[in-house]
């Protein structure tokens, strides 16, 4: 680019900003990768918390589950209350996270967007699509953690 415009009439000098921009894009790449690692760590932490909570709940209800086993209840009917507890917790956590995401979007729209009109920020459609993914991932993580924990702890 510099060689294409250097020496033309009316152009004194051409500065190549590539070195500065390359550093900036590398920084953005590192920040993106760091955010991805934090997200993965958060999902693993959530799975461990769900697993531990269900283990404590199963331990506290061991007499009830023992009676259910004695009267011939199926393993699904024994596990169902614990699975529903995980689903309800997932929905509550999803609601809180969507609330924070919506508040963040509102802040961006009212405070930051007027100051930086040269760039486009995420839209409300992005918020709702992200919230659907949050709910789906929450259900998957909760279900997997619940099933693995309950099979191991309840021996059904």
Provide tags for this entry.
156 residues, mainly alpha, elongated
What does this molecule look like?
It is a multi-pass membrane protein. Residues 37-151 form the ABC3 transporter permease C-terminal domain. It holds the Pfam family FtsX. Its main location: membrane. It is found in: Cell membrane. This protein has 156 residues and is mostly helical. It has a domain at 46-154. The protein is 80% helix and 0% strand. The protein has 5 helices and no strands. It has helices spanning 2-5, 18-60, 62-70, 75-112, 124-154. Helix 2 runs parallel beside helix 5 and helix 4 packs antiparallel against helix 5 (124-154). The protein is elongated. The model has no long low-confidence stretch (mean pLDDT 87).
| Total strands | 0
Rounded mean pLDDT is 87
Which residues sit in consecutive blocks of at least 5 with pLDDT less than 50? none
Helical proportion? Answer: over 70%
Beta-strand proportion:
under 5%
* Gyration radius, in Å: 26 Å
What structural class results from the helix and strand content?
mainly alpha
What is the 3D shape?
elongated
Which series of helices and strands comes N to C? HHHHH
- N→C terminal distance: 69 Å
Count of alpha and pi helical runs: 5
Major sheet characteristics: none
Question: What is the gist of this entry?
Answer:
This protein has 156 residues and is an all-alpha fold. The protein has 5 helices and no strands. It has a domain of 109 residues.
